[in-house]
């Protein structure tokens, strides 16, 4: 081999190793450097605590137990809602968030895409983003629904459209509701 080829091979070996190392460090940095929450402290929220909201159109009482805005959690939020007899959560889907629903008490009829499923105390449902879902209470007792969104952030939809308990009720136009729905990726199957 000539003296010209040896340095070139050395450079190529070093160059390949350098590129591999740089990519590995870059992937490591992007995969592990960002923690899933801004707040590294545990959070405890008791039954009576949280942000209590009366929803605008439905007048349903719901509570945001923890959220991205209030607690710095980016990975998930946690809420509760009471659905009184004769009321329903309209069929809708979330474009940006997965949802887990836990029926803490009561019984009702859950819609998932085109299926209806009887649910009762203890039922847990995973609803991926983009899946139509709704819940109806045809019974005589309240349904207590506990739910979470991943990633956190959708809970602010309730803050913008609802009214904090104890405050004068907000009035919103159809256009304001539509803007909030678009902002948070909320789509109703039957436009409201």
Your description of this structure?
The protein is an alpha+beta fold. The protein has 4 helices and 12 strands, in the order αββαββββββββαβαβ. It has a 7-stranded antiparallel β-sheet. It has a 5-stranded antiparallel β-sheet with strand order 7-6-9-4-12. A hairpin with a 2-residue loop joins β6 and β7. The relative contact order is 0.18.
- Shape descriptor: globular
Helix content: 25-40%
> What is the N-to-C order of secondary-structure elements (H for helix, E for strand)?
HEEHEEEEEEEEHEHE
- Find the count of extended strands (DSSP E, 2+ residues): 12
* Separate helix tally: 4
Look at the structure and give the mean pLDDT: 86
**Portion in beta strands:** 25-35%
- Note poorly predicted spans: 16-37
The structural class is alpha+beta
Radius of gyration: 24 Å
Largest sheet: 7 strands, antiparallel
Strand order of the largest sheet: 8-5-10-3-2-1-11
**Terminal residue distance:** 78 Å
How is this fold's topology laid out?
Layout: H1 5-32, E1 51-54, E2 61-66, H2 68-71, E3 77-83, E4 88-94, E5 98-105, E6 107-112, E7 115-120, E8 124-127, E9 133-136, E10 143-150, H3 156-161, E11 163-164, H4 174-184, E12 186-188
Antiparallel strand pairs: 1-2, 1-11, 2-3, 3-10, 4-9, 4-12, 5-8, 5-10, 6-7, 6-9
A few lines on this structure:
The chain is an alpha+beta fold and 192 residues long.
């Amino acid at each position: 081999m000539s003296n010209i080829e040896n340095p070139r091979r050395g450079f190529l070996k070093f160059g390949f190793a350098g590129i591999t190392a740089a990519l590995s460090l870059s992937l490591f940095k992007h995969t592990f450097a960002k923690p899933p929450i801004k707040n590294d402290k545990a959070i405890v929220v008791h039954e009576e605590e949280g942000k209590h909201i009366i929803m605008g159109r439905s007048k349903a009482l719901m509570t945001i137990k923890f959220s991205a805005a209030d607690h710095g959690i980016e990975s998930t939020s946690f809420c509760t809602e009471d659905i009184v007899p004769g009321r329903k959560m309209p069929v809708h889907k979330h474009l940006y968030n997965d949802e887990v629903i836990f029926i803490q008490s009561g019984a009702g009829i859950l819609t998932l895409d085109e299926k209806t499923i009887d649910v009762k105390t203890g039922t847990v449902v995973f609803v991926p983003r983009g899946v139509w879902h709704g819940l109806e209470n045809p019974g005589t007792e309240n349904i207590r629904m506990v739910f979470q969104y991943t990633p956190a952030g959708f809970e602010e939809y309730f803050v913008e459209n609802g009214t904090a308990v104890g405050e004068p009720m907000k009035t919103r136009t159809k256009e304001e509701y539509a803007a909030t729905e678009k902002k948070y990726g909320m789509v109703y199957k039957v436009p409201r």
